[in-house]
Amino acid sequence: MRLRSPVLRVLLSLCLILSLLVTASSAKKKPPPKPVNINTATSEELQQVPGIGPATAEKILQMRKSYGAFKSVDDLLAIRGLGPKRLEKMRKYLTVGKPAPAKSGALPVKSTLPAEKPPDKP
């Protein structure tokens, strides 16, 4: 039994070290190749930004839905849990562009009236 105890300790230590390495590597996100437009981005696109996880992405989408398009990246400071320091780390990955056009079920109306005929000459 004495032989198992040191071996078991070594194995547990290795497991702990490996789990820490996996956690540390998954915490480092690869930033998006170009800035993400917070007025048009999906939850998945927002989550590509370091510092934005699923909960923050949902808060951003909810704020956009409730209050309309963002005018500035600084508008994100109104989100609970997102302070100035965290925003500064994210700022270079975010942009504010025109919001996506509203989608409606209606198709554009095309005129079907015949062209007007010129009056007959007498």
Walkthrough of the structure:
The chain has a domain at 31-99: DNA polymerase, domain 1. The chain contains 4 helices and 2 strands. The protein has helices at residues 4-27, 43-46, 54-67, 84-90, and strands at 36-37, 94-95.
Number of strands: 2
Taking all residues together, what is the mean pLDDT? 78
Say what the CATH topology of the domain at 31-99 is.
DNA polymerase, domain 1
Identify low-pLDDT runs: 20-26, 106-113
Instruction: Report the portion of residues in β strands.
Output: under 5%
Task: Please give the CATH class of the domain at 31-99.
Answer: Mainly Alpha
Number of helices: 4
Major sheet: size, sense and barrel closure? Answer: 2 strands, parallel
The CATH H-level superfamily of the domain at 31-99 is: Photosystem II 12 kDa extrinsic protein
> Looking at the structure, what is the overall shape?
elongated
Rg from C-alpha positions? 27 Å
Give a brief rundown of this model:
The chain is mainly alpha-helical and 122 residues long. The protein has a domain at 31-99: Photosystem II 12 kDa extrinsic protein (DNA polymerase, domain 1).
Helix and strand topology:
Elements: H1 4-27, E1 36-37, H2 43-46, H3 54-67, H4 84-90, E2 94-95
Parallel strand pairs: 1-2
